[in-house]
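Appendix B, example 12.
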Amino acid sequence: MDLPFKFSGGFELPTKSIGSILSVQGIIQTFATLIVFPWVSGKLGCLATFRIAVLSYPLLYLLMPYLTVLPATLRMPALYFMLVWKVTAQAFAFPPLQILLANSAPSKRVLGTLNGTAASSASLCRALGPTLSGFIQSAGLSIGAIGLPWWTSSAVAIVGAVLSLLLRPQQSRSSRLLASDSEASQLTLAAGSDIENVAAKIQPADIEEDFEPLPPRKH
């Protein structure tokens, strides 16, 4: 072992323990998605919630491999802490991402194309991710650095965190429609008010001066 980068090892957990951890992950994710995320998003907004999650990912991936070098009594508590962190960040990242993506659409006509492209890109990353991470893990094991795939993910997450800081809040389509209707109503009221003001200034004498009486009809 040659810290901070060259070390190896693992938890060597039995299948039953792994199943229990996955079950706890599902419970935490359900709670975070249905209870915690709506409350935080309502307080901070979708973009701020998304940034909190994305900015935390680099540190999460950076620290994850070091769980293997902790004392045996601290490994499982630290693992569950990291699990709660990861699942909460995931619950904070994906719903706002879908909302921000929908709000960025200029029209409902392109929503299908936009969502389809996003889903296809995500599927491509899920297909290539395990293959690439497997190659990186093999390379890390060959040099005694088991954390190499995690640190590579941390570098990718840093790029995503920087890009998240460049995002700007977009008004939802429903809000844009309401704003357009409000502006149209204000213009209509203003035009009606101008017409009433002009009509109020016109006196009957002005009308009589503008129109000459017709000559009498000859029978």
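The first helix runs from residue 15 to 44. Helices lie at 15-44, 46-63, 72-103, 111-142, 148-165, 173-201, 204-210.
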